[in-house]
Amino acid sequence: MKDRIKKYVDNLFSEIYETKQLRELKEEISANLLERINDLIASGNSEEEAFKKAVSSLGDMDELVENLKKASQEKLQQNMFEAEALDKKHLIAYITASAILLFGIMTTGIVYLRNKDLMATTGTLMPFLIVSVLIFMYFGLTQETKHSYGMRPGRALLYCLATAILLFGIFSTGFVYFSGRKLFEVVASFMPFVIPSAVIFIYLGLTEKNRTKMNDVWQKQWLEYYSDPKAMMIRGNISGALWIFSFAAFFLIGFTVGWRYSWIVFIVATGIEVLIEGFFMARKKG
């Protein structure tokens, strides 16, 4: 029954771009419907009868939907001409991350000038770089701007977790490489890090929702384009596989041919990503 209620409420507000306030409203309506249905069932109604009566008790929702659309449009137009000031929490976080990074760079420079040891220098930089990157990422993803809504904290933490695993793997693999180990040992040391991080990134990519603040025209186009979940799943799988192979090729070329050439992989991958997006857009229009 919960799934049926969720589907009904989602369809009710399907033409409105989802915001935090709309999610809370949908959750409240769903909870009220479920409570009402349970009461009706307890009174002797069947599940089908209880559902129909509970939905009827909501009344005409058209006015509410139109008001929400109007309010969203007015807020969008207002935000377009107003600067979005950073809240205190994000401001402190960005300053803290910058301070950590700068302190790490200076400390790393001192270590290098003193020891001339690349591994010791890299090991000194690693914790400062990873921590500062994760702070920037988390608060950057959860920040609401005039063009986009902030990401949910739980999803942002998953992105940070995947990034932390990947960064730690890159540093660890670098230590293995510069210690003089064989290539297969270097690649093997990277696998335990790249595989779980790639899995998390693919999951997040497949379940990601557009957070852009859109007007009615953009919203309608977005809903039409992304209304096919099967196509989006295929699109996400192709994209995820592309970037997994790209990272693998980056390290393979770097360790075997040279790091000066390995970065070309990402330019090629970006071009392929654009072609994939163009293919799916053309397919949708066709």
UniProtKB/TrEMBL annotation:
It comes from the Bacteria. InterPro entries: Perm_prefix_1. The keyword Transmembrane applies. The chain crosses the membrane at residues 91-113, 125-144, 156-180, 186-206, 240-257, 263-282. Keywords: Membrane, Transmembrane, Transmembrane helix. NCBIfam families: perm_prefix_1. This is Uncharacterized protein. It comes from Fonticella tunisiensis. The lineage of its organism: Bacteria, Bacillati, Bacillota, Clostridia, Eubacteriales.
